[in-house]
Amino acid sequence: MKDRDYDRELKELKTDIKNIIGEGELNRMNEIVNLSFQLDEKPKYEISNKIVK
Amino acid sequence: MPTKDEIFNEIIKEKAAAQDTIRRKYLSELSQLTGRDTIILSSAFSSRKLPNLPSFSVSVTNEDIHGFMSAFNGLNGDKLDLILHSPGGSPEAAKQIVKYIRKKYDDVRAIIPQNAMSAATMIACSCDTILMGKHSAIGPIDPQITYPTESGHFTAPAQSILDEFEQAKEEIKTDPATAPIWVRRIDKYPIGFLKICDNTIILSKEIVANWLTTWMLKEDPEKEKLSKEIADWLGDTNEHKTHGRPLDINEARAKGMIVEALEDDNELQDKVLSVFHAAIATHNFSECTKFVENHNGKGSYTIIKQG
């Protein structure tokens, strides 16, 4: 059985979405979401590894 | 057997990193009782600190292979007890850990005092037998995929991602007005991502079926058929509904897995639970989120300091 071409299907779906929404509106949506994520507080931590031989 | 509270009090009384001393004492006592090399892989995933911990600091990762290398140092026995307390993690890391363990040991028993989920269940399936308590659990092995998003790393079942993709295609086709709802989800999937999901699902089941055939069910005349059935059952996202669903000793036995009850041997149960309580205390009293350690106190420890 031939492998399913997920990449082609994904590319087609992204193109369909772009055609439905329109490139300008799509960019505007992305800008708004990206701005909101920049305001999120990011957790800070320091990771270390200790070996006992 | 000391209770969990008694072990915690013992640590508080000793102070200054006493959790390490006390945990090692109980691990050594367990190994002396069984006469087997003993290694524990323990994670803080069930600790109260979890909400603030990054998932990779508590899950099975490729770094754990280094942990096992350290823990194998100086062990000369031919039988291993592997205590697992883990939420799982990378199936690829699990595969390498098992390969490493099996190069050294012909006889491996998994001991699950509470939970060995996902990739930790996979590791348990590579053992000759599993020892579980009445309240212990293994879990579904359907792989989880972690991918970066704007708000940090996000983890979802591979099968759910594929199902979501199908749903998006169908909904957008039948009602184009739904496209704005899907755009952010679909847009973040890179090329190759869906194929990775598909391959990982197949890989997890194949690996587990192969391990069961090679070790746990090696004496069974229908080992290949039974192993495949067990792997399919463990990997069935739709049957289990959630990836974290606990599967108990009775369910595992009913499917044909070889599982002994921890409660059948009181002395062994006492020693195992003492090690387990001391491991949990380690996560609660220190910044150690994960460790791999042998009965001689050698191993590797992941430490997280939160800012």
- Radius of gyration of chain A using CA atoms only: 21 Å
The total count of strands of chain B amounts to 11
Helix and strand sequence of chain B: HHEHEHEEHEEEEHHHHHHEHEE
Structural class of chain A: alpha+beta
Helix content of chain A: 55-70%
Report mean pLDDT of chain B, rounded to a whole number.
Answer: 90
Percentage beta strand of chain B: 15-25%
Q: Report how far apart the termini of chain B are.
A: 38 Å
Morphology call of chain A: flat
Unreliable residue runs of chain B: none
Structural class of chain B: alpha/beta
Radius of gyration of chain B (Å) = 20 Å
Strand-residue proportion of chain A: 15-25%
| Lateral arrangement of strands in the main beta sheet of chain B | 9-5-3-2-1-10-11
CATH topology of the largest domain in chain B: 2-enoyl-CoA Hydratase, Chain A, domain 1
The helix count of chain A comes to 2
Principal-axis shape of chain B equals globular
- Oligomer category: heterodimer
Largest interface: A-B, 32 and 42 residues
Q: Domains counted in the coordinates of chain B: how many?
A: 2
In words, what does this structure look like?
The complex is a heterodimer of chains A (53) and B (307). Chain A is 60% helix and 15% strand. With 53 residues, chain A is an alpha+beta fold. In chain B, a hairpin with a 4-residue loop joins β10 and β11. With 307 residues, chain B is α/β, with parallel strands linked by helices. Helix content of chain B is 49%, strand content 19%. In chain B, α1 (4-14) packs across α12 (266-285) and α6 packs antiparallel against α8. Chain B has 2 domains: 4-139 and 246-303, 2-enoyl-CoA Hydratase, Chain A, domain 1, CATH 3.90.226; 143-239, no CATH class. Chain B has 12 helices and 11 strands. Chain B has a 7-stranded mixed β-sheet, with helices on both faces. Chain B has a two-stranded parallel ribbon with strand order 4-6. Chain B has a two-stranded antiparallel ribbon with strand order 7-8. Chain B has helices at residues 4-14, 18-34, 63-72, 91-104, 119-125, 158-174, 179-187, 193-216, 223-234, 237-240, 249-254, 266-285, and strands spanning 37-43, 79-85, 107-112, 115-116, 129-132, 137-138, 144-149, 152-157, 259-261, 288-294, 299-306. The interface between A and B is large, with 32 and 42 residues. β1 of chain A pairs antiparallel with β11 of chain B, so a sheet runs across the interface.
